[in-house]
Specification:
heterodimer; A: 8 helices; 8 strands; about 50% helix; B: about 200 residues; mainly alpha; globular
Chain lengths: ~300, ~200
């Protein structure tokens, strides 16, 4: 095709009506031809002006609230990430000044304590303060270790959440998905972005030290989603089962699920009303049909705090 | 504030930059500013308010996540937002049975032209300009443009709908676009700014 043929295609491209093959060859031409690129741009602007012919319609107020709430969830994550970066940078700086196991642990979260230590101004060379200083250092180390664990878990949960969100996005993006699958992906996304949605990290036990999982649930509806990873493959005739434990009652059975070749499993379930306040989630290995009471050691456990 | 009054280009750009920087208040302003026109567009394309609500949420989430990728040298924020909303809506249309609803609506003669003076008295200044430009081009060209822009049909499908040869339909759309571009250029200098 020559330049003139492509030029004729530009209006149709701007309206988005070119058939697939034509659209593809035109893209290639546009990459190479500045003149057509400029004209394509102008024609797309022209096409976008057509939107002005539509009468504006005020969307419902509840939609505004929903959209603003969903970006707040998103923003909280961004802020958390930014803080991590900032404190990592600062801790890098302070490391040379403070030669302690805390700084060596390369924990990015130790910064507030290090700062506090500097501000409190331990007076060097006054023995009376030495014991206090040692005690304070020990306290700092102990606190930092705790904080490191909490921070680590928090980071993992955020990564899981991002992965869940990305998965929902991928699902929504695949044009060949059935309506039902799309509806489910939307539901998952809504659950993750619902105000008050909670994320719980499940850790692997002795039975599966490498396994880990995340449960996202909406305490108002009980709607829950489990994403597990690095579980050993279930033997034939067996499957994993989710349990809800709360208020001193016997574990309440959830659904069963299987893992794929890489040890990943997903499950949608509903947290029983009695357990939505502060449930503990556990996963055991059971007969593939599931049981009403657990028969194995838990493989994964996590408590909503 | 009236629903669709336009911000100046530089104010639009500043707002979008603030959104890119994570400013939630700016995001709320952007939403208040553009949601009526985008929602109107989505309802027009999808013929369903629930679907339009869904897509509006997707569009604004995308705006929140990708505002930083907006390039002001390549067009106005308005163009960016409209293009985003339209392509999401058309994707949705093509992947769902919304097509069937659309066929019904079209059979009832509800959707095939731009000119709808009955329902809404409000018209932003630029809307006036575009309406006048469209009124100045032949009706069959205008109809072809409307089918292309709002219905998400391919050129072949448009030809089938209009029961005209494909070549004729292509010519109409090309002529319509060329005229529209010239008219908009002549009427308002800033409508087609950015190149």
């Amino acid at each position: 095709m020559n330049h003139e043929t492509y030029k004729e295609m530009l209006s149709l491209d701007a309206l988005g009506v070119l058939d697939g093959e034509d659209a593809r060859t035109l893209r290639a031409h546009l990459d190479a031809c500045a003149e057509c690129r400029a004209e394509a741009h102008e024609l797309r602007l022209t096409a976008s002006m057509l939107a002005h012919t539509v009468a504006p319609v005020a969307p419902p107020e509840h939609l505004r609230a929903r959209i603003l709430a969903s970006i707040e969830t998103d923003a909280a994550r961004d802020i958390a990430n930014a803080n991590e970066t900032a404190s990592a940078r600062a801790s890098e700086k302070s490391r040379t000044a403070v030669d302690s196991p805390v700084a060596d642990a390369s924990a990015t979260n130790v910064l507030p304590f290090v700062k506090g230590q500097n501000r409190s101004g331990f007076v060097v060379g006054k023995p009376a303060f030495a014991f206090g200083a040692i005690a304070a250092s020990l306290a700092i180390i102990a606190l930092s270790a705790t904080l490191l664990t909490v921070w680590q878990r928090n980071k993992e949960m955020r990564a899981e959440m991002a992965r869940l969100g990305a998965r929902a996005d991928q699902l929504a993006a695949r044009a060949d998905l059935s309506e039902q699958q799309l509806a489910r992906a939307r539901e998952e996304r809504e659950m993750l972005t619902a105000p008050g949605a909670r994320i719980v990290a499940l850790a692997g036990t002795k039975a599966a030290p490498d396994a880990h999982a995340t449960v996202a649930f909406d305490p108002r509806t009980g709607s829950a989603m489990l994403l597990a990873a690095d579980l050993p493959p279930a033997p034939a005739g067996k499957a994993y089962q989710l349990w809800f434990i709360a208020g001193g009652r016997a574990p309440m059975p959830g659904k069963v699920f299987n893992t794929d070749a890489s040890g990943r499993g997903t499950l949608r379930d509903r947290v029983p009303a009695e357990a939505t306040a502060a449930p503990t989630f556990a996963v055991t290995l059971e007969p593939s049909g599931g049981t009403s009471a657990p028969t194995s050691e838990p493989y994964l456990v996590g408590k909503a705090s | 504030m009236s629903a669709g009054r336009e911000l100046s280009d530089s104010a639009e750009v500043a707002l979008l930059r603030a959104v890119a920087g994570g400013d939630e208040k700016a995001f709320a302003s952007l939403y208040d500013q553009y949601s009526p026109i985008l929602f109107g567009l989505l309802v027009r394309i999808l013929h369903s308010r629930p679907e339009a609500e869904d897509v509006l949420q997707e569009v604004f989430l995308q705006v929140w996540q990708r505002a930083a990728s907006f390039d002001e040298t390549r067009g106005r924020p308005f163009t960016w937002l409209v293009t985003l909303a339209r392509s999401r809506a058309i994707d949705r249309l093509r992947s769902s049975n919304a097509r069937e609803r659309l066929a019904t609506a079209s059979a009832q003669g509800l959707t095939e032209d731009f000119v709808d003076t009955s329902a809404e008295t409000f018209r932003a200044e630029q809307s006036e300009v575009v309406q006048r430009a469209l009124a100045a081009i032949p009706e069959e060209q205008r109809r072809a443009l409307a089918l292309a822009y709002f219905e998400g049909l391919s050129q072949t499908e448009i030809a089938a709908r209009l029961q005209e040869p494909l070549g004729t339909v292509k010519t109409r759309m090309r002529s319509g676009m060329t005229k529209l571009r010239e008219l908009l250029r002549g009427r308002v200098g800033d409508v087609l700014s950015g190149f």
